[in-house]
Amino acid sequence: MRRSETIKISELIKKSIQANKLEDGIDRVRIKSLWLEVAGFHINKATTELKVSKSVLYVSMNSSILRSELLMIRSELVKRINKELGRNFISEIVVR
Question: Where are the domains of the chain?
Answer without folding.
Answer: 9-95
